[in-house]
Specification:
By secondary structure, this protein is mostly helical. The protein has three helices and no strands. The protein has one domain. The protein starts with a helix and ends with a helix.
């Protein structure tokens, strides 16, 4: 099986969103529903770190990517992650 870095780079924001939701639910369950803002914030940070880690791993395995493109793709993934999370929080309110 071949590691396709481009596929992982594309899916990274979605995996980060899934991680954020799962982390939020786990923390809300562990705290008994108290400190809701803290659970949301920790979920957001955890999902962002997941997106960052997957994106960095994918970018490290991509051949011949300039530094400017590397930074732009990384920032783009983080912005997409934040926008998806914001969009899902608006639609659930």
């Amino acid at each position: 099986m071949v590691f396709d870095a481009y596929s992982w780079l594309v899916i990274a924001p979605a995996l980060g969103l899934i991680a954020a939701v799962l982390l939020h639910l786990l923390l809300a369950r562990l705290t008994g529903g108290e400190r809701a803002y803290g659970c949301v914030l920790r979920g957001f940070v955890g999902g962002g770190l997941g997106t960052l880690g997957i994106s960095l791993g994918a970018l490290a395995n991509m051949a011949e990517v300039s530094t400017v493109d590397w930074i732009a793709l990384l920032l783009f993934n983080l912005v997409i992650y934040a926008a998806w999370l914001r969009l899902t929080s608006i639609s659930s309110a």
